[in-house]
Amino acid sequence: MSATSKNPFIGVGICNLSMAFLFGLSACFQFNDSDWYFWIPLYTTAFIVNLVKWAKKPNSRMRKMAKFAMWLGFFLFIKVSIEDLAVGRTVAGLWSLNMRGRVVRERLGSGLVISSMFLLLRNSNTSPAQITKYGAPILVGVAYGLSFLFFAFQHQEMNY
């Protein structure tokens, strides 16, 4: 019996490992941030949940950690969006992908954590939905694709 016949969602494990690496790296970059006390727990929890999910089946403790990370991600997404609107930007700024801005990077990071935890919680059911089969590779593609495009082709100074 091959590994793929035992686990039809083998690609989800590779995606969890990829997202764990991305969240671990993101946690390391938060030490010079002014509100690091929000972002380091968010990225560290997402890192641990994705790494443990890659190594073994989810248990109740991991689901609780995933829910915590998802709700913290929601809180930070709303916090960053309110900061963006308070500065005087319009709703169009909400959809901006100009990752030179701190607000856009933080919004994208919290959105990736929310999406990853949502997919992980949906995949921890006994009969995972189709969204988890295709959602995890799409999430990895978006996360790494946007990061690569930004760092490969962005040569202007970042805003903090």
TrEMBL record:
Pfam families, per database record: TMEM220
PROSITE patterns: PROKAR_LIPOPROTEIN (PS51257)
InterPro entries (alphabetical): TMEM220 (IPR029377)
Keywords attached to this entry: Membrane, Transmembrane, Transmembrane helix
Transmembrane segments: 9-32, 38-56, 68-87, 134-153
Name of protein: Transmembrane protein
Cell inner membrane as UniProt keyword: no
